[in-house]
Amino acid sequence: MTTNQAGRVALVTGGSRGIGAATARALADEGLNVAIGYSASAEKADEVVRDLRRRGVRAVAYRADQSDADQVTALVDTVATEFGRLDVLVNNAGVSINGRVDDPEADTTAFDHQIAVNLGGVVAAIRAATRVLGRGGRIITVGSTLAARAGFPGVADYAATKAAVTGYSRGAAQDLASREITVNVVQVGAVATDMNPPVGDYADRQRAAVALGRFGTPEEIAAGIVFLASPGASFVTGSVLTIDGGFLA
């Protein structure tokens, strides 16, 4: 563990697995105390917390439904209260529900839930964070290259949520600039996670569209998030950092 940001506090939503867990570990390696939010797997969340504590930082997991704005607000407030501050918010929690817009049997309830999590949860977290972040605070949201290039059928609803997050983040960056709070998006491509396993026909189609010809790792995404959370990124706001192996090249 380094001590570049020792004493600072980060909240990573969706921190029990995948990109969220990798980000939590990477931030801990920079010396930050880390809270993670999770919605379902307490066991996985506890495992991540134990790993973070072994790295010498304070770590706690909190359960919150990202589709419920009140729970998201309470999560942010609880972290700020129990840790005494909040310096970095990483909006990583998300769901992916695929389906064509012309499918008469599409599960519109699931699509509505996706909007509530991927967009509503991010908006609620950012609004709550603005009340507790001090000068130099960082807000980073995990987006998707599908916001810029759908590339495949069946992703319209998911792509829309990620495009909306990018637009919201740019607007928030303008609103918070006077407080030196930066707001950015890490736009990711095909990454090997539980939500996007690197096997099967859809995975093969993704891999074929990537210039580097492979899936990224959660740790490669976490590296970009750590940069945007750092003091070195103080002049980066309203930006989209694309980490996609060349999908958009």
Q: Which keywords apply here?
A:
globular, Rossmann fold, alpha/beta, 249 residues, seven-stranded parallel beta sheet, 42% helix
How is this fold's topology laid out?
Blueprint: E1 9-12, H1 18-29, E2 33-38, H2 42-54, E3 59-63, H3 69-83, E4 86-91, H4 108-129, E5 133-144, H5 156-176, E6 182-188, H6 201-209, H7 218-229, E7 240-243
Parallel strand pairs: 1-2, 1-4, 2-3, 4-5, 5-6, 6-7
Helix pairs in contact: 1-7, 3-4, 4-5
Q: Could you say which structural class the secondary elements and strand pairing correspond to?
A: alpha/beta
Residues in β-strands, percent? 15-25%
Fraction in helix: 40-55%
Return the CATH architecture: 3-Layer(aba) Sandwich
In CATH's first tier, which class applies?
Alpha Beta
Distance between the termini: 35 Å
The SSE order reads EHEHEHEHEHEHHE
Instruction: Round the Cα radius of gyration to an integer and report it.
Output: 17 Å
Largest sheet: 7 strands, parallel
CATH T-level topology: Rossmann fold
Total count of domains: 1
Q: Would you identify the CATH H-level superfamily? A: NAD(P)-binding Rossmann-like Domain
* Major β-sheet strand ordering: 3-2-1-4-5-6-7
Average pLDDT, rounded to a whole number, is: 95
Organism: Actinoalloteichus hoggarensis
Keywords: Oxidoreductase
Enzyme class: oxidoreductase
Family: Belongs to the short-chain dehydrogenases/reductases (SDR) family.
